[in-house]
Amino acid sequence: MALRQKLGWSEGDLMRSDAKPCSRLMRQTAAIFTVGGAIGFWVLCRLHYGPRITVPRSLRWAGCGAVSVSTSTAMLVRLFSPECEPQNIAAYDHIKTPQASLP
Predict the structure, then answer these.
(1) What's the rounded Cα separation, in Å, for the pair 51 and 86?
(2) How far is 48 from 42, CA to CA, in rounded Å?
(3) Which of 35, 63, 70, 85 has the lowest tally of Cβ within 10 angstroms?
(4) 75-90 pLDDT, tens per residue?
(5) DSSP secondary structure string for all residues of 4-26
(6) Residue, of 14 and 99, whose pLDDT is higher
(7) Average pLDDT of 39-63?
């Protein structure tokens, strides 16, 4: 899904083995920008409504900001980060599946 190859920004090389995998990079970026989006949209709500602000309204704006900013930044990381190129996901993004243990 990375656009780097389609735009010609990628040489197709594998990243270093000690780099963060794409899934962790997206999760951490989304978590950081959730807080920033909530604070940013809360400020916009305060500026927009002024003294007519109510708690449910400000929480709704903060929630919408958190969701929209975190998903959009996670999508941008997925599209433009070298860690999220297909060859790096195949090599380093291992989904841990539960192993059946014998008694």
Answers:
(1) 50
(2) 10
(3) 35
(4) 998 888 888 888 887 8
(5) HHHHT----PPPPTTSPPHHHHH
(6) 14
(7) 94
Quick one: tokens of 77?
């990381």
Task: Map tokens 């962790």 to a residue.
Answer: 24
Higher pLDDT, 82 or 41: 41
Contact 22, 88 (CB under 8 A): yes
CA distances to 28, 58, 75, 94 from 38, in Å: 16, 10, 18, 31
State CA 20 to chain mean position distance: 13
Inter-residue long-range contacts of 59-66, CB under 8 Å, 24+ positions, other chains counted: 62/38, 63/38, 65/37, 65/38, 65/39, 65/40, 65/41, 66/34, 66/35, 66/37, 66/38, 66/41
Q: What is the DSSP string of 41-72?
A: HHHHHHHHHGGG--HHHHHHHHHHHHHHHHHH
How many residues are present in the chain?
Answer: 103
Q: Give the model confidence (pLDDT) of 1-26 as tens digits.
A: 577 777 887 777 777 777 788 888 88
First to last CA, the chain: 42
